[in-house]
Amino acid sequence: MTPTTVQTSLAGRAPRARPCRSALLLLLALLLTTTPHADAQSGAAPAEVGEEPIFTVAPVQYWPGRGLRLEDTGLTLGGFTTVKAETTKDFGYEFALDNLNFFLIYDGLPRFHAVAEFQLNDIFVATEEETGAQEFAFDIRRLFGDFALYDELHIRVGTFLTPVGYWNLILAPPLTWTTEAPLITEKTFFQPTTTGLMLYGLTRVGSGQLGYSVFSQLLKPLETDPTLIAPDYTAAARLTYDTGPDFTLGATYQAAQTTGVWSQLQAFDLAWQLPRGEILGEIYAQQDSDPGSQWGLYLQGTLEVYGRFYAVGRYEHYDQPDDDPTLNMFTVGGVFKPYPFMALKVEYRFVNHTDQQDAPEGFFSSFTTFF
Amino acid sequence: MRSRVLLLAVALACVALAPTRLAASDLRLKVIAHPTRAGALDQAVVRAIYLKQRQFWGDGKPTIPINREAGSDVREAFSEKVFGQGSGRLAAYWNQRYYEAGEFPPATLASDEAVLRFVAGNPDAIGYVAADTDTDSVAVVLTLR
Questions:
Q1: Residue A11: pLDDT band by 50, 70, 90 thresholds?
Q2: What is the mean pLDDT of residues B37-52?
């Protein structure tokens, strides 16, 4: 084939080439569906899934992806980190050591455990304008105690992840398939953490588990992020139904009062694991007099392409309050997961309005791992 | 153009829905508990215990689920029969529980004999072994075919 015919073919101008391309696509699909490839994670070794320590210096054990455990004390020190590189249409390039978070976990008693998360943000950032740690921030992200009275009743007190939707419970980048989170999950509709009280539990219904949580923000948040406009009070309830780890459906309602103004939020979420893929979707709607009502959704599909390589695609719609433009975004990317707790991600996000600082169009990549 | 997009979508759907590998094995398993816990459990209860969704027995004592090591035939068979997926894919679930709530997956033991000994000696433990294992010292609460 000459270079000319290659170019013609790629431009789609040669009708005779179409059956050929269709046949190739079908062949590719057949190969991927029938090849007995190494299902890398199914046959993973214990250390690869964080179930066995890889070294022990008595009394400390290191479990990959699950931190250092101090034997017989119930104490674990773990965390995650992310390095990020992006180049966007209107805002140029950025390289960042984006975050370094540490967890301190106590699980030494059957009915009580506690979690603290400390966060170092923007440790090093290089952009076209500046290089350094100008926006460096240290925060106590979470600090809570969990008391298990029964399977049907647990009590959580402190600062914890706000269980609105699904994404907000997987905020750690090693758990997500894209460098950039869906826009609607980023502080737009609710704050990522709640400081107060939560009652929650599970009970069996049919072959699955019906879960509930009732939670309220009663105190000021620990986080000192100056951009955080935390509500004074919230009252919220969430119901979930799951049939094991493969299918979860959730619905949440939250009323929040911020500087004397009440808003209401409804959210629905779905997470469904297929044999070689995953579908995740959420929809949020909020009624608020200031800045106004808004709603948005995303639907994300992930596909195990081969072994530890995955393809991901996501559609997002965000109807902003006031006269701000309605955004439609499509993200397409790939992920390599050498271990379940580690990911190398690349993606491109298309946006119908490229001047939006919160959602620029461009190329994003990151390396992230639990340690 | 539309037909090609449709074709690509169909191809990707085929890949997503294709089974990851041949069914785990025809290995039959027995789920075992201490003799004081004798009484049948169904698969949904066993699944909830191993996902740490059900953390207490009826008498309020904590459940102690014991896994075989990831990658072993018995573990993979258990994982596929009870969760419908290999143990490696469950790592994503445990990563989430670890991050969100500071929860860890069940402890592992490296042989059926070790699981038998542990369960026989601990009234709150639950484990599983290959169906041809001698289980006189424990109670069989579920058979997985």
A1: very low
A2: 94
pTM of the model: 0.85
Give CA angle at A183 (A178, A188), nearest 5°. 140
Q: Taking CB atoms and an 8 Å limit, are B55 and A110 in contact across chains?
A: yes
| pLDDT given for residue B17 in this prediction | 53
The answer to whether residue B11 is domain-embedded is no
Residue A178 and residue A315 in contact, taking contact as beta carbons nearer than 8 Å: no
Domain that holds residue B140: 25-144
What does the alpha-carbon distance between residue A239 and residue A255 come to, in Å, rounded to a whole number?
15
Taking the CA of residue B120 and the nearest CA in chain A, the distance in Å comes to 20
d(C-alpha A341, C-alpha B97), whole Å: 12
Bridge partners, A92 (sequence order): A88
Cα–Cα distance for residue pair A4/A15, rounded to 1 Å: 15
ipTM: 0.85
B122 near A CB under 8 A: no
pLDDT in tens, A240-271: 999 988 899 999 999 999 888 899 999 999 99
pLDDT at A27: 43
How large is the average pLDDT for residues A76-104?
A: 94
Residues of B in contact with A305 (CB under 8 A): 15
Nearest chain B CA: its distance from A151 CA (Å): 6
- When the candidates are 3.40.50.1820, 2.170.120.40, 3.40.449.10, 2.40.160.10, the CATH number that belongs to A162-370 is 2.40.160.10
Compute the distance between CA of residue A243 and CA of residue A262 in angstroms, rounded to an integer: 35
